[in-house]
Specification:
By secondary structure, this protein is α/β, with parallel strands linked by helices. Helix content is about 30%, strand content about 20%. The protein is built from 11 helices and 11 strands. A hairpin with a 2-residue loop joins β3 and β4 (about 95-100). α5 crosses α10 (about 240-250) and α9 (about 220-230) crosses α10.
Length: about 280
C-alpha cells in the first residue's frame, strides 16, 4: 500500500519553548514573535521562513502528495502560511488539510499526541484504510528519513531509529527524548520515555549507539487506531501519548514495527535557544 500522506502534529501550546524565552539569548523582536506563534511558525535564519515551510518542502521532495496539519482551534497563523481552506490548500505544490485537536470538556490543554492522531483519523476516516507517516512539527526531518518511511516493507508499521552520535545532543538532552529497544532482526521491542541518565548506557546497541526516537512513524491506520483509542492517560503528564500507544501495539505484535536506522543531525526547536542556532544542513 502506497504511503503518500504526512501528518504533522502542531496542536501543542509550545509551553516549554515559551517558558524558556525569558532567559534566551535572543533579541526582543524575536522573543515577541516567538511568544505569539507556534514554534513551527517562528521565522528562522536569513530567509525568515518557518520550520514548517522546510518540513513540507522536504516532504514534497520525498514524494508525499498530502499533508495533514493537526492544530488547535486557534490556527490562524497556520492558515496565514499554507492557506485558509479547511481542506485542499495548495502549498508548495502539495495538498494541505487541517485537522483540529479539540480539548475535552474539563481540561485547559490538549489530551496529548495519541489523542491528536486519533482525532485526525476520525476527521479524515479515509486515513484508517491507508498507510501514512506522522511526525512532530518542531523537528526538521530529512528528505531521506521521510523517504525511508515510504518504502515498501513486509510489516505495516515502521519508524526511524536515530543514532545518538549523529544527533549531536548532550546526554542531558537525549534523556528528554525516548530511547528504543530494538531486536537483532530490526523490530521495535519497546520505547523508554525520558530515561534516567544513569541508566542510559544499558540501551546501547552492538555498535555502541543509543537509538533515539524523534517521534517520526509510519502506520497502517487499521493497525494503530485501536491503540490510539484505548491508550491510557499518563499518570504524571495527564496525557494520552503516542509512544504509549506504540508500546502497547508492539507488545501485542512483536514483529509489527520495523526500525530504519539513520545517523544524522535533526534541527530541533525544543527550547528558545534553538531559534538562534537553527541551521539548514
Amino acid at each position: 500500500m502506497d504511503n503518500n500522506s504526512l501528518i504533522i502534529m502542531v496542536g501543542g501550546s509550545s509551553s516549554r519553548m515559551k517558558k524558556s524565552l525569558a532567559t534566551a539569548n535572543l533579541d526582543e523582536k524575536t522573543k515577541n514573535i516567538a511568544q505569539k506563534l507556534h514554534k513551527s511558525l517562528i521565522p528562522l535564519g536569513a530567509s525568515g521562513r518557518p520550520l514548517l515551510y522546510y518540513l513540507i518542502k522536504n516532504a514534497v521532495e520525498a514524494g508525499y502528495t498530502q499533508v495533514y496539519l493537526i492544530t488547535s482551534r486557534q490556527n490562524d497563523g497556520f492558515k496565514d502560511e499554507v492557506g485558509y481552506k479547511d481542506r485542499d490548500n495548495k502549498y508548495q505544490g502539495i495538498s494541505v488539510h487541517f485537522a483540529i485537536q479539540h480539548i475535552p470538556e474539563g481540561r485547559n490543554k490538549p489530551l496529548g499526541t495519541a489523542d491528536a492522531l486519533e482525532q485526525c483519523l476520525n476527521q479524515y476516516p479515509e486515513l484508517k484504510d491507508t498507510v501514512f507517516t506522522v511526525c512532530n512539527g518542531d523537528n526538521l526531518y530529512s528528505v531521506d528519513a521521510l523517504g525511508d518511511l515510504r518504502k515498501t516493507r513486509s510489516v505495516p508499521n515502521a519508524l526511524i531509529s536515530y543514532g545518538s552520535s549523529g544527533l549531536k545532543f548532550s546526554d542531558e538532552r537525549l534523556a528528554k527524548f525516548a530511547l528504543m529497544d530494538i531486536s537483532s532482526e530490526g523490530y521495535l521491542k519497546g520505547i523508554v520515555e525520558k530515561p534516567e541518565i544513569s541508566k542510559m548506557n544499558k540501551y546501547r546497541d552492538a555498535s555502541g549507539e543509543l537509538r533515539v526516537s524523534m517521534n517520526i512513524f509510519s502506520f497502517s491506520g487499521k493497525s494503530i487506531y485501536p491503540y490510539l483509542k484505548n491508550c491510557s492517560i499518563h499518570p504524571i503528564r495527564n496525557e494520552k501519548e503516542l509512544p504509549e500507544a506504540v508500546r502497547n501495539m508492539v507488545a501485542d505484535h512483536p514483529e509489527g514495527m520495523l526500525c530504519y536506522p539513520r545517523s544524522e543531525y535533526i534541527p530541533d526547536l525544543t527550547n528558545a535557544e534553538d531559534i538562534g542556532h537553527f541551521k539548514i544542513e
